[in-house]
Amino acid sequence: FCVYIHYIYIFISSMFHLLCNRLEYIRHIASTTSHVYLFSTSSLKPILSSSNSTDPQSLTVSYLLNSCGLSLESAVSASKKLQFETTDQPDSVLSLLKIHGLTQTHLKNLITNRPPILLADPHKTLKPNIDLLKSLGFSGTSLFKVLGKEPRILETDAYTVVEFFRAYGFSEKQISMITMKLPALYTYNVYKIFKPKLEYFKSLGFQGAEIAHKLSFEPYILQRSLENQIIHSVQIIRLIVGTNENVLKVIKAGYRILEYNLEKVLEPNIAILMNHGVPESKVLKLFTCKPRSLLLRTDRFNQVVSEVLKLGFNPTTMMFVLAIISKTVMRKSLWEQKVGVFSSFGLSDDEIISAFKLQ
């Protein structure tokens, strides 16, 4: 009997030694292989599928590989953010998303970016939000574009966000534009974050329709701090233009001015103009009509001013201001392209400059 036990021990020891060597070999190959795995995802699927189904992590990884199409690396990473003991709810989520036009590729990307979506309630949360997005015109590819930007939108109280904007006079088209441009807005507390900003715009004298129109094109302002960015920017603008009426003109001409660090960009550019002899009245005219022209990087704006001076414009005239506007709204490459076209027709540099002045 002892001899029998001895042989069993030798056999088990040999097998264990062989297994250890094999695992060490696999580790060595894996460590020297870049961007690929020793085993393909497809060859691992049966192994993972046959693993102990009572182990939540094994079940989760297997499901993410087999049903969602994730890579092994993505599946392992995602399994750290969610685990489930049965596939009933994830199956319901995938089924619902497929019904609404999402392809396997869409699902793979969506779940890679937001694994916990598989645990969302398909009936109380996902379906109402998808139906709401579809009512705004999103389906299939356009629906995935929105979800690709912000997958958490399906887990939010989207109805409250949409109703908030409707109450402030936003049309369905404008809400749709906001949703496509910045779906992350659905993750905010609209009454705590957005309402004070919209009320502040009203206090400046903007009408509801104006606010809706501007924000549908520039919703990013709603992410800015009211006190530290928006109000501070308005105060700087008021110091320059003097009156509330002019403040409105500047903001209406370009809402994006409220997103800039005006002390860093605007003030140095105004100083450049003043130092070149541009009258204050002309600077004010430029700022109220085309504030965007003064929001270039200071080094680029200084270059534009130098180019306009070389063209022979007098800094004390309105023509100088108009030339600044033309040069700032036109990309340098486009200006060079136009010069090249004029030159190809035989125009001299002086004739090209004259043509520019006559624009």
From TrEMBL:
Domain of life, source organism: Eukaryota
InterPro entries (alphabetical): MTERF, MTERF_sf
Keywords linked to the UniProt accession: Transcription, Transcription regulation, Transcription termination, Transit peptide
A family per Pfam: mTERF
Keyword Transit peptide: yes
GO annotation, biological process: DNA-templated transcription termination
GO MF annotation, one: nucleic acid binding
UniProt keyword annotation of Transit peptide present: yes
UniProt similarity note: Belongs to the mTERF family.
Descriptive protein name: Uncharacterized protein
